[in-house]
């Protein structure tokens, strides 16, 4: 019998694949269970309903992003503990030239589409963004005095840019450079 964490990872992976292939309209617990080769009741043991499954999928993605950001931070500051600017460049690159772009764009477009009609999922998404913004503000505040301003501008921009960035006149690396210049030019006080 698979460990709980292995089973939940398999379920989340199947959920993401179905979201990518069929969109939110095609996602059902029955299809996810079928992809995993388990009974619907077995899936419902882990996730009693579609909203719980989608919340877990979002949580998984957010944890993955946080882990990547922390790894980039550790690497940048390990190379030069005083190099907040090296971390900023890595953070911007991760958020704006994200390796998870396809996953990110697909999953979150579908989650927000579902959240329009699912108040519990919408509340979970808003709760996540508040937590994510607070976490990122705390992490950046150790390095930049205007962390609240940086986060307030950067998170919504990165969210939208993941969807439309390839359609913009500047390439992604140019946008990273632009954001770096904007952030480093912020005054220390409002």
UniProtKB/TrEMBL annotation:
Annotated GO MF terms: DNA-binding transcription factor activity; transcription cis-regulatory region binding
Ranges of residues in domain HTH tetR-type: 5-65
Swiss-Prot/TrEMBL keywords: DNA-binding, Transcription, Transcription regulation
Lineage: superkingdom: Bacteria
DNA-binding region: 28-47
Protein name: DNA-binding transcriptional regulator YbjK
Organism: Parapedobacter composti
